Amino acid sequence: MTVSRRAIALAVGCLLLALVPPIAALTNQPFYVDLFRRMMIFAIAAVSLDLILGYGGMVSFGHAAYLGIGAYAVGIPAFHGVDSGWLQWPLAIVASALAALVIGAISLRTSGVYFIMITLAFAQMLYYLGLSLEAYGGDNGMRLAGRSRFGGPIDLHQPAVFYYVVLAILVLFLVLGSRLVASRFGMVIRAAKSNEPRARAIGFSPYRYKLTAFVIAGSAGGLAGALLANQTEYLTPEFMHWTRSGEIMFMVILGGMGTLFGPVIGAIVLLLLEDVLSALTAHWQIILGPTLVLVVLFAKRGLFGLLSIAPPDG
Predict the structure, then answer these.
(1) Cα–Cα distance, 271 to 288 (Å, whole number)
(2) Which CATH code of 2.40.128, 3.40.1350, 1.10.3470, 1.20.950 fits the domain covering 2-306?
(3) What is the mean pLDDT of residues 292-311?
């Protein structure tokens, strides 16, 4: 029954997201297509962080670095006249994966607060590197020369087409993430989170598994960055700032760590609250802050856990 209810809830969620463009067209409110597309892009980033935070217990405070790398992997080639998405998006994934490999190889040799500080330090290094790139706008950022081009029916200049591309990537990532978590690989990651010495004693190498998960999460974050650059048509080092990492982490915590689908809810709720409250008052942070604190205090397993369909933590 629990699995059935979860499947129904997820199917309904996907259906509601798929209905946003036609509803926006009927109501003549194209703004909502842009808003929900942005929510789904950050949902992809949040789910990628949840793979290492929720299932692996790796509290990375530098996940926004991959968002920025992915964005610059689109923006810099576009600046030089290369606007092919078939080149830009794989470049975003590979560049972010390589960065995650280096960062993970070093940070995973530590734990606790040291791990957090190393990931934060690397992210800030990349942030200041972005500030130093004067040719590409420096701290002012730069406009994207043009959205990625794929040819054929995939025209990202069409809002609805771009929307469904993002939705398809989100759904695909959730499906692949579910299979990954349920696999032997996912079981080792969760076992290492619960008791790393015991996982090592029974013959597994937690370091290699955790590093692989770190690279997968980084590459997915890079793809989210490529989508975000196309969404905003603007890129700035602020994509990599530590406050952005904190925002993505809060999406995971708000929605429910170790659930995959929880971060999607967390991203939608957080960005929707920001949008609604900022329209009501200029001091919307005063309202948003306590609201989010109350949710965290009284919903220990996040908003997804309140639906009574969240799977138990590994």
Answers:
(1) 11
(2) 1.10.3470
(3) 72
